[in-house]
């Protein structure tokens, strides 16, 4: 299982699993399904236009040509535009929960998105998709040819841990929070802690837990009690936050 470290905005490195060939194929099937839907919709629109004009003895309306041009542009530039403006995801990638990242773990640059898009001609055009399949199957980081040139790959964004394991449930009513300072945290902070906990359970990477615990301690100006390790500390922070926020909404 290939792993890539991605640095969050809080400078915490989290391991993500590289998306495999199956994930890519499924995402592509979803995207093609979207285009099939658009194609059938335009097909029926064109028929209605044609029959309407034919009954009046006219020629093919300019509107049909405009529709064909727009559809062609969307089909050609869809992946490039979607990945640039939607954080490395198309509709298919979003549905399958994968996205494009740089090999370094950062968000790809405009040039990287452009390069991997241009090489679609090689991956899916000149080789009819065979080149892309072989490249992803044999490469260490599951890259198609365009990814190799651009220095990118796809990673899974779906947590591999069940929600019940991430302590989303509220503690019992008589629970007494250990760290009342958690009220200074935000939902996004807790989401990141959840992700760190999930990542540790999936990969066993203890350094990400240690770094996250250190940042939370510094941010809240608190210390870990004797006998509590960094992992238990993060779980307690989440539990305290859930309890305090749930009580605030009662």
Explain this structure.
The structure is a single chain. The protein has 250 residues and is mainly alpha-helical. The protein folds into 2 domains: 3-156, no CATH class; 163-248, no CATH class. It has 10 helices and 4 strands. A two-stranded antiparallel sheet has the order 1-2. A two-stranded antiparallel sheet has the order 3-4.
Protein traits:
single chain; 250 residues; mainly alpha; 2 domains; two-stranded antiparallel ribbon; 10 helices; 8% strand; elongated
The strand count comes to 4
- Side by side, the strands of the main sheet go 1-2
Largest sheet data: 2 strands, antiparallel
The geometry reads as: elongated
Beta-strand percent range:
5-15%
Q: Which stretches are low in confidence, meaning pLDDT under 50 for 5 or more residues running?
A: 159-168
The tally of helices reads 10
**Helical content band:** 55-70%
Question: Could you report the average pLDDT, rounded to the nearest whole number?
Answer: 83
Short summary:
The protein is mainly alpha-helical.
Write the layout of secondary structure elements.
Blueprint: E1 3-7, E2 13-17, H1 21-55, H2 62-85, H3 91-96, E3 98-102, H4 110-118, H5 120-126, H6 130-138, H7 145-150, E4 152-156, H8 187-203, H9 206-220, H10 230-248
Helix pairs in contact: 1-2, 2-4, 5-6, 8-9, 8-10, 9-10
